[in-house]
Design a protein that fits this description.
single chain, alpha+beta, six-stranded antiparallel β-sheet, 27 strands
């Protein structure tokens, strides 16, 4: 039975104003046949839809959104890429490629929205200011209470309500017809109630007169409601625009045009090729482009010709430029500060490292964190509750006083309740904070894959580290070669490398040698091991090959290569099966190690080196000692974690003695050594079952299962793609300082979310009774005008609170 493959479609939506809009669009999209799930992010004005590509196409989704009363930007992206396929292996899904929405298309739509709001706000202000002066004269200006003055107020209120306020009325009507009333419905009802009562009292004052006095009118309230709401929407639009600063900054690193060479070549042959300036979007894999000093690389590629200093701080965080020459890989957005380069492109468009980072940030910003679910449920029932409360407020006040004055007061209180309520602040509380937190994380070299990952990261209390390539540099060196003497001897032949510089501590004494360096037996042993490991990508394998090349040894051809993950490798060399790996693995393969050989392995491990055994056709040939230096940033990063109250542990596949040496240098007390990938998974699951909130930090293929098993998997930048794919958090710059930074930022984001939710809840819980007149016996009341002002500013305050995360600075770091 074929596996059902789902693709993600991203729609840039226009016209959303509150959480009710997001829910209405989600329901409309979910009703389309072939849609598995729909998630709408109000803060980013974006819908992400999981669809069956064989059953639904993008036009059907756009039609559903438009039928619900909203718009969709013209050309959005279909992310039916291999990494987005659910339940199918890479390559099983073929989706029609569409032109991605340019970043400035969203910007243009947002700018147009802000201009429309600004025009409406300006017109409203021109009418509302004199309206407020007339409506709040309170007898000090006789003209204001005269029939002419009241009709002037009516004219001004009509201009505001059915001019700039028409967008609110239309939105409220649309929501009401869809049986999903929202903030626009509440505001529209409140403004129309105040306007309708005032118009009736102005047209037929005798019908509502009381004690010889004209009935009170609320034209200024109707106008002020619209004016304040438009002001709030304008400020909210400006604040929402800043949520995308991180992604826009990444896109801005890529130039608009590239100097493409008319042909291809190698070496200096490309220098003389003519060039033509073309849009970056037209570049294809295999194209050759020239990048001049002061320009940025338009896509990822390998240097064919030239030498330059390249600023790659966008990925590494290092401000110092690095040298780039033929054969060096350069990523899109890298800035050339000296020299010129010719690149042959190997990744373009959305496949570049920079584009994938931007896409991952956008995905994290748009994802829904678990903490948002409660707010979503509250927003779903909020408006019906407020409508019921408004009706109840009107009824209670009218029951207390059925006179025209009492009727006017009942309408005033009802209007205040309608315009005071604000479900938007609740709906924005979580997504706004997640969007800013994810964007700030990208700037600091921490890529959160989802909002849920960010939320889980805030609760971590145990971080488990892999050793090789994580706590150590991942650039091991062969520091000793010890061929067997008499079958199981312990004589050593040391390499020319400075042994102490490669040790865990960096200052160990040279490894003891029982035999002179570069013995022929040692060369043979190293050449055989290198022949096997030449087909492996493991750091130890690269170290062995590099050592053989440094000695100028000829490596015999090998075939039938087979790797045993986390154990070793074997291949057929000159007709014999040669194995290189852990002593225990070789014993499992039938290689006999006597007591002396085992003792020598223990001695090598006790010195902080990793012993690797070499055997040919089941006969033990000798030892290779490999050392990997501890990273310079490991100790400070672990100290920061402990300061955050987070425990640390080491889980390594290496021997206990080697793992203990590294742990001792870093002050790690909990050490687990000799673990297979499945053992690491079991360890993490046991800790989780014991109530710990765990993170696993690793960089290799063998770490992928453990990364997936932890509450939060963190992959080191520059590590294996498989590890990054299994991780919830990618540490882009590869530094361990990013681990405590990720936790600090996640905790700061959660504080912002809690602050937003508390503020939004407190606003509604205190504001609604105040608007309803509960505190009137104490002399505390709230007019509809000020209620609308408070409502408009509540959403802005939530966004401003979230944007404060842009100032986040990790403790103990400069920025």
């Amino acid at each position: 039975m074929p596996v059902l493959a789902m693709a993600d479609v991203t729609l840039e939506v226009t016209g959303m104003t509150c959480a009710g809009c997001a829910r209405r669009i989600e329901r409309a999209l979910a009703a389309v046949p072939g849609v598995a799930a729909a998630d709408v992010n109000l803060a980013l004005q974006r819908a992400t839809v999981a669809v069956d590509p064989a059953r639904v196409e993008r036009p059907a989704l756009v039609a559903a959104v438009e039928a619900a009363g909203y718009g969709v930007l013209a050309a959005t992206s279909v992310d039916a890429t291999n990494e987005d396929v659910r339940g199918a292996p890479a390559g099983d899904v073929e989706a029609a490629a569409e032109t991605p929405t340019p970043p400035d298309l969203r910007a243009a739509a947002d700018a147009a929205e802000r201009r429309a709001l600004r025009r409406g706000l300006a017109l409203a202000a021109v009418a509302v200011l004199p309206l407020l002066a007339l409506g709040m004269a309170h007898g000090s200006w006789p003209f204001a209470d005269a029939p002419a003055g009241r009709w002037l107020q009516a004219a001004l209120a009509t201009v505001v309500l059915f001019g700039p306020g028409l967008r609110l009325l239309r939105g409220g009507l649309r929501a009401a017809l869809a049986r999903s009333p929202d903030m626009n419905t509440l505001v529209g009802l409140g403004a129309l109630a105040a306007y309708g009562w005032s118009l009736a009292a102005t047209a037929w004052p005798q019908a509502f007169a009381h004690g010889g006095h004209r009935p009170h009118v609320y034209f200024e309230a109707a106008g002020a409601i619209v004016g304040f709401v438009l002001l709030g929407k304008y400020l909210e639009s400006r604040a929402r625009w800043r949520l995308g600063d991180a992604i826009r900054a990444l896109h801005a690193l890529v130039p608009a045009t590239a100097h493409r060479l008319a042909g291809s070549g190698d070496g200096r042959a490309v220098v003389d090729l003519p060039e033509r300036d073309v849009p970056v979007a037209s570049l294809r894999v295999g194209d050759c482009v020239r990048v001049r000093p002061g320009e940025r690389a338009p896509a990822d590629g390998v240097v064919l010709h030239g030498d330059a200093a390249v600023d790659v701080s966008l990925l590494t965080g290092e401000s110092a430029p690095v040298a780039a020459g033929p054969g060096v890989h350069v990523v899109a957005g890298s800035l050339l500060s000296g020299g010129a380069l010719v690149l042959r492109l190997d990744r373009t468009g959305s496949a570049t490292a920079l584009a994938r980072i931007a896409a991952a940030v956008a995905e994290a910003q748009g994802s829904r964190a678990p903490s948002a679910r409660l707010a979503d449920r509250a927003s779903a029932v909020f408006v019906p509750i407020v409508l019921a409360l408004a009706v109840a407020t009107f009824g209670v006040h009218l029951a207390c006083d059925a006179s025209p004055v009492g009727l006017a007061l009942a309408i005033e209180r009802m209007v205040a309740v309608l315009v005071m309520a604000c479900p938007c602040a609740l709906g924005l509380a979580t997504p706004a904070a997640v969007a800013v937190g994810a964007g700030r994380g990208a700037q600091l070299g921490v890529l959160f894959r989802t909002g849920a990952a960010l939320e889980r990261c805030s609760a971590l209390d145990l971080v488990v580290f892999d050793k090789t390539g994580t706590l150590t540099t991942g650039r091991p060196e062969v520091v000793a070669v010890e061929p067997a003497v008499g079958g199981h001897g312990v004589a050593a032949a040391t390499t020319n490398a400075a042994i102490g510089s490669a040790g865990s501590g960096g200052d160990r004494a040279p490894f003891p040698a029982a035999m002179p360096a570069r013995r022929p037996e040692g060369d043979v042993l190293l050449a055989l091991a290198a022949a096997v490991e030449r087909s492996s990508e493991h750091p130890f394998a690269r170290a062995i090959v590099a050592a053989a090349q440094a000695r100028g040894l000829a490596m015999p051809p090998a075939h039938a290569f087979r790797a045993a993950p986390a154990m070793g490798a074997q291949a057929v060399v000159d007709g014999a099966v040669v194995r290189v790996g852990k002593p225990a693995w070789l014993v499992e393969q039938g290689v006999a190690l006597d007591g002396a050989a085992a003792a020598r392995a223990d001695a090598i491990a006790a010195a902080g080196r990793t012993p690797l055994a070499v055997a040919r056709d089941g006969e033990f040939l000798g030892w290779l000692a490999v050392a990997d230096a501890v990273r310079a940033d490991a100790a400070p990063a672990l100290a920061r974690l402990r300061a955050l109250g987070v425990d640390v542990a080491l889980a390594s596949g290496d021997r206990a003695e080697v793992a203990a040496a590294v742990a001792g240098a870093l002050g790690i007390e909990e050490v687990h050594a000799g673990l297979l990938p499945a053992d690491k998974v079991a360890l993490l699951r046991a800790r989780t079952a014991a109530g710990r909130r765990t993170a696993m930090v690793g960089d290799g293929v063998n770490d992928a299962p453990a990364l997936a098993a932890a509450d939060v998997g963190m992959a080191m930048g520059g590590g294996a793609d498989v590890a990054a794919a299994a991780a919830d958090v990618v540490l882009l710059r590869g530094g361990l300082d990013a681990v405590p930074t990720a936790i600090e930022l996640a905790r700061a984001t959660m504080r912002a979310i809690r602050r937003n939710l508390l503020g939004a809840s407190a606003y509604n819980l205190l504001g609604l009774p105040l608007a309803a007149g509960v505190f009137a016996p104490l002399g505390v009341t709230l007019s509809p005008m000020w209620a609308s002002a408070a409502m408009s500013l509540s959403s802005v305050s939530v966004l401003a609170s979230s944007l404060w995360l842009r100032r986040f600075r990790p403790r103990g770091l400069a920025g």
